[in-house]
């Protein structure tokens, strides 16, 4: 299958915060430059917004200048992080259920704080508008019934609590200002009621359903990783993201690997952390686990503590987040 690159002028310097190799990954195709178009409470019905009429051409919105000045989306998790720590609103057990593992589709050492990575076809950057400002996060194409679903952080699709974002696009396999597989606009966004109505950081996960591009669905072009819910805690993870603050520049993919541990600062969040020195921007980046040589996404990068230990934290993917995924996966 021939991949088309998106021609765009100019190189971008983008801020994006966010064992083993990613199994459903392949190397990115030769890329054209990107330019002119280019953080969780009880169960409830997952919330969604349709972007079909209000967000008809987000790719046209994202000029090189807007991408370059987008704010790293991790700042959007700060309100939920501070609120949960102050009020204890996130006390209680995160819901669980029987383990669920859905295998993805492929297109083609020792733990350390971070490693350099070649581009991965289905991992990329997310751009969106919230209020008066433009932001950037990370995301990952995941297996779905519609072949068009991207997993990211809840605070990258909804204010938590508050409105859904606008102008949401996904740029898979981003590298040095290029979009080898184009820019994919979202036509619907999903998250949990717990995030959209209460900003409960334990459920900081969102999903975007992308529109077809050139008559093709996202997974047909870049593949999709598997997903897993209600898994054991304390697993070994490899997390991906595009850190941009020094010593990083946001232009290439990085990863961190390690065994998950509890958050000792705010244990009521029920989150898990791994050693990582990635800086602002990898919010929404995928956390991958392996089983019998297959890879499954099992969390996302949600928050960290500036000036604290070099750790990033992700929410536990239980039954509530699985329900939101199911709705997004079935959306047409």
Give a written overview of the molecule:
This protein is of the alpha+beta class and 332 residues long. It has six helices and 20 strands. The protein is globular. The protein starts with 15 loop residues before the first strand and ends with a helix. Residues 1-43 and 108-112 have low confidence and may be disordered.
Number of helices: 6
Distance between the termini: 24 Å
Q: Characterize the main sheet.
A: 7 strands, mixed
Rough shape? globular
How much strand content do the residues show? 25-35%
Mean pLDDT value = 79
The domain count comes to 1
Helix fraction, binned, reads 10-25%
Rg for CA atoms:
17 Å
Structural class: alpha+beta
Descriptive keywords:
332 residues; alpha+beta; Thrombin, subunit H; 20 strands
Strands, helices and their partners?
Layout: E1 16-17, E2 47-50, H1 58-61, H2 64-68, E3 71-72, H3 78-87, E4 100-102, E5 115-116, E6 123-130, E7 133-142, E8 149-152, E9 166-172, E10 184-191, H4 193-198, E11 206-210, H5 218-222, E12 226-229, E13 236-241, E14 254-259, E15 261-262, E16 272-275, E17 281-282, E18 286-291, E19 294-300, E20 311-314, H6 319-330
Parallel strand pairs: 1-17, 3-7, 12-19
Antiparallel strand pairs: 2-10, 4-12, 5-14, 6-7, 6-9, 7-8, 8-11, 9-10, 10-11, 13-14, 13-18, 15-16, 16-20, 18-19
């Amino acid at each position: 299958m021939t991949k088309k690159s998106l021609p765009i002028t100019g190189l971008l310097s983008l801020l994006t915060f966010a064992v083993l190799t990613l199994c459903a990954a392949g190397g990115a195709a030769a890329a054209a430059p990107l330019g002119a178009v280019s953080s969780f409470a009880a169960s409830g019905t997952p919330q969604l917004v349709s972007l079909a009429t209000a967000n008809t051409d987000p790719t046209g919105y994202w000029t090189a200048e807007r991408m370059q000045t987008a704010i790293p989306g991790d700042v959007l998790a700060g309100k939920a992080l501070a609120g949960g720590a102050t009020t204890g609103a996130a006390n209680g057990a995160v819901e669980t259920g029987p383990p669920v593992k859905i295998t993805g589709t492929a297109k083609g050492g020792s733990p350390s704080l971070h490693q350099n990575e070649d581009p991965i076809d289905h991992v990329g950057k997310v751009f969106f508008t919230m209020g008066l400002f433009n932001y950037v996060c990370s995301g990952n194409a995941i297996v779905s019934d519609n072949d068009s679903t991207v997993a990211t952080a809840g605070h990258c699709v909804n204010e938590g609590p508050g409105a859904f974002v606008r102008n949401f696009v996904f740029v898979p396999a981003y590298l040095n200002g290029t979009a080898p597989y184009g820019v994919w606009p979202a036509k619907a966004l999903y998250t949990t009621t717990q995030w959209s109505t209460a900003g409960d950081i334990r459920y900081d996960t969102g999903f975007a359903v992308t529109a077809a591009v050139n008559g093709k669905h996202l997974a047909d072009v870049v593949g999709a990783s598997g997903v897993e819910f209600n898994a054991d805690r304390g697993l070994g993870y490899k997390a991906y993201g595009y850190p941009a603050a020094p010593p990083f520049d946001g232009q290439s993919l990085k990863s961190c690997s390690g065994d998950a541990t509890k958050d000792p600062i705010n244990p009521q969040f029920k989150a898990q952390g791994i050693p990582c020195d990635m800086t602002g921007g990898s919010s929404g980046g995928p956390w991958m686990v392996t089983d019998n040589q297959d890879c499954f996404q099992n969390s996302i990068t949600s928050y960290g503590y500036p000036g604290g230990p070099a750790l990033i934290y992700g929410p536990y993917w239980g039954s509530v987040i699985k329900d939101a995924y199911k709705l997004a996966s079935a959306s047409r």
